[in-house]
């Protein structure tokens, strides 16, 4: 070996070492920069992504029961979230616990939640149970409940106090703002680098149960005034009083504005301390319910008040839906109402039952940023076991590939469907290709021309286009056939069907499928279905 050869090689070694070290440093820096990047919602045209650590993230969440975010019961509850394969836990912070006396903040619960979520590698959507919880004020501190003179309640039309704080009293607003800001400031301190908490829900199902609007003196005076110009302008309505502008819906609209405006100020104060993405959740006006204050909290972000809410609460990044049905028409109707150019689909709560599991696919297919099942902790029962099995199967399949799904959805490359009763076939179009989805075919072999569908309508399928002629497919109780539909005389063919799975975002190849496993379509069973990576071509 010549000296120069040696030195060249030594130089090369030094150079590659330098490159490796620089690369590692850069990687480290980028990783740190990504970790330090605040979670945020981004929008391109009418598509959305929630960025977590700098990349799109699908929220596959489970919400704890209302009284489970206490250190004594939290470990068991969080273990049940982990068992579901959720990547995010939705858990409340209770105002009554957080501020036991005016201006004294107790962070015990919050600190425990974050520490224990981290131990389990869970992200957190923090639910601020403040002035509103299910259209009432049950989570405000005792010192507020006892002092209605300082912290007035909404009065009903007979002048009787309700169990809702008045949204027209500055003492109420200021107290909530102060507490929420303190919460967000503490969060920034303990989580501002790590971002275990990725979302904050401001209040819970706001609006009023027991009255359509507050009838206190301040509220009555405001009701006689004109609708704020910013609202009429945004809604494209002429100026006028609430009665003139909204007619029979005036009281509900008035309360929606008062509620949204109050929450806007709470959220804005919180964001000043720590600007995480914030949303509200909605007790829906659905299932034939139509009486505000009775059927649902008056003044929440229900579909009839949606525009008004968006106009009145710019600090709220998006509006979520609490969907407690497994009826296909009702479920998909609600998703359609809230998945809009100005709002991403986001199921902030849904019933923890097997029947809601297929709708995760529907939500993702509508560009949704996430989905959360409610009340996953607690005692075992056959019902709970069935619900856990269905949702754990979903989350277990999708969580390891959630980043791929979120990115594809944001880029318009993802389509997904849930089985509609009575409709055993669906077609998804991707450029020159169609994915023909059917339900009720055998695991392999010819299907009956008249397909029965699944008796429990549990079919669901998701397709991501990864290249013009490459697709990822996965689902449950469904068959998928790929067909080329371009009108150029060429035929489509399957070139390669890889079966595998994602593990922490990495593809793990298991085997190639062919013969009976592809000649009768690509079939997805109910138990532990795979992910297929399919390359197609023409001849
Ligand atoms: C919706 C609420 O937002 C939750 O906190 C909980 O009360 C559920 N309803 C119970 O069904």
Give structural notes.
By secondary structure, the chain is α/β, with parallel strands linked by helices. The chain is built from 16 helices and 23 strands. It has helices spanning 3-36, 74-83, 95-98, 108-119, 142-145, 170-191, 217-224, 229-235, 242-246, 250-273, 306-312, 328-338, 358-365, 382-398, 402-410, 516-519; strands at 40-44, 47-52, 55-57, 59-63, 88-94, 123-133, 153-155, 161-165, 197-204, 278-283, 318-323, 346-351, 370-374, 414-418, 425-430, 433-438, 460-467, 470-476, 478-484, 492-503, 506-513, 522-524, 531-538. The protein has an 8-stranded parallel beta barrel, surrounded by 6 helices. The chain has a 6-stranded antiparallel sheet with strand order 14-17-18-23-20-21. Strands 15-16-19-22 form a 4-stranded antiparallel sheet. α6 packs parallel to α10 (250-273) and α8 (229-235) crosses α11 (306-312). The termini are far apart. Bound molecules: (2R,3S,4R,5S)-2-(hydroxymethyl)piperidine-3,4,5-triol. (2R,3S,4R,5S)-2-(hydroxymethyl)piperidine-3,4,5-triol is lined by residues 66, 134, 204-205, 322, 349, 374.
Give a quick rundown of the structure.
The chain is α/β, with parallel strands linked by helices.
- Shape estimate: globular
Decide which structural class fits the backbone.
alpha/beta
- Oligomer category: single chain
Ligands bound here? Answer: (2R,3S,4R,5S)-2-(hydroxymethyl)piperidine-3,4,5-triol
Strand portion, in percent? 25-35%
**Main sheet: strand order:** 4-5-6-9-10-11-12-13
Question: If helices are DSSP runs of H or I spanning 4 or more residues, what is the number of helices?
Answer: 16
- Our Rg estimate from Cα atoms comes to 26 Å
Reported for the largest beta sheet, the result is:
8 strands, parallel, barrel
User: What are the low-pLDDT stretches, counting only 5+ consecutive residues below 50?
Assistant: 1-29
Name the average pLDDT: 94
The tally of strands reads 23
Distance between the termini: 55 Å
């Amino acid at each position: 070996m010549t000296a120069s050869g040696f030195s060249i090689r030594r130089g090369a070694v030094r150079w590659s070492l330098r490159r490796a070290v620089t690369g590692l440093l850069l990687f480290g820096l980028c990783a740190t920069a990504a970790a330090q990047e605040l979670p945020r919602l981004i929008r391109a045209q009418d598509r959305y992504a929630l960025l977590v650590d700098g990349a799109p993230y699908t929220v596959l969440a489970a919400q704890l029961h209302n009284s489970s975010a206490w250190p004594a019961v939290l470990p068991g509850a969080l273990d049940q979230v982990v068992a579901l394969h959720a990547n995010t836990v939705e858990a409340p912070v209770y105002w009554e616990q957080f501020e036991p006396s005016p201006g004294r903040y107790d962070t015990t619960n919050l600190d425990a939640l974050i520490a224990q979520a981290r131990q389990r590698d869970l992200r957190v959507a923090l639910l601020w149970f403040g002035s509103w919880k299910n259209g009432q004020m049950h989570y405000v501190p005792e010192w507020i409940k006892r002092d209605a003179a300082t912290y007035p309640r909404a009065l009903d039309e007979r002048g009787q106090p309700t169990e809702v704080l008045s949204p027209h009293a500055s003492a109420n607003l200021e107290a909530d703002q102060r507490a929420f800001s303190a919460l967000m400031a503490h969060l920034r301190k303990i989580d501002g680098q790590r971002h275990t908490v990725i979302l904050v829900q401001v209040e819970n199902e706001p609006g009023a149960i027991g009255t359509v609007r507050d009838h206190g003196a301040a509220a009555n005076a405001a009701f006689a005034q004109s609708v704020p110009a910013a609202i009429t302008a945004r809604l494209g309505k002429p100026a006028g009083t609430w009665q003139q502008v909204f007619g029979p819906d005036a009281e509900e609209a008035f309360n929606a504005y008062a509620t949204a405006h109050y929450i806007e100020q709470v959220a804005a104060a919180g964001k000043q301390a720590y600007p995480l993405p914030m949303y509200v959740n909605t007790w829906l006006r659905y299932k034939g319910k139509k009486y505000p204050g009775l059927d649902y909290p008056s003044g929440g972000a229900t579909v009839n008040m949606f525009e008004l809410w968006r106009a009145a609460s710019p600090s709220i990044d998006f509006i979520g839906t609490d969907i407690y049905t497994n009826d296909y028409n009702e479920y998909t109707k609600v998703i359609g109402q809230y998945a809009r150019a100005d709002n991403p689909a986001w199921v902030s709560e849904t019933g923890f039952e097997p029947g809601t599991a297929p709708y995760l696919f529907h939500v993702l297919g509508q560009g949704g940023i996430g989905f959360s099942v409610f009340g996953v902790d607690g005692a075992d029962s056959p019902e709970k076991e069935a619900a856990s099995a269905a949702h754990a199967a979903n989350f277990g399949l999708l969580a390891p590939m959630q980043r791929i799904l979120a990115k594809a959805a944001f880029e318009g490359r993802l389509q997904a469907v849930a089985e509609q009763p009575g409709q055993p076939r669906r077609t998804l179009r991707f450029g020159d290709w169609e994915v023909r989805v059917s339900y009720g075919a055998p695991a392999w072999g010819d299907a009956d021309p008249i397909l029965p569908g699944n008796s429990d309508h549990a079919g669901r399928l998701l397709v991501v286009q990864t290249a013009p002629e490459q697709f990822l497919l996965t689902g449950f109780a469904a068959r998928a056939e790929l067909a080329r539909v371009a009108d150029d005389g060429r035929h489509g063919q399957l070139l390669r069907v890889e079966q595998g799975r994602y593990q922490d975002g990495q593809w793990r190849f298991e085997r190639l499928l062919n013969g009976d496993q592809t000649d009768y379509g690509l079939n997805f069973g109910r138990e532990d279905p795979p992910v297929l990576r399919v390359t197609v071509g023409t001849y």
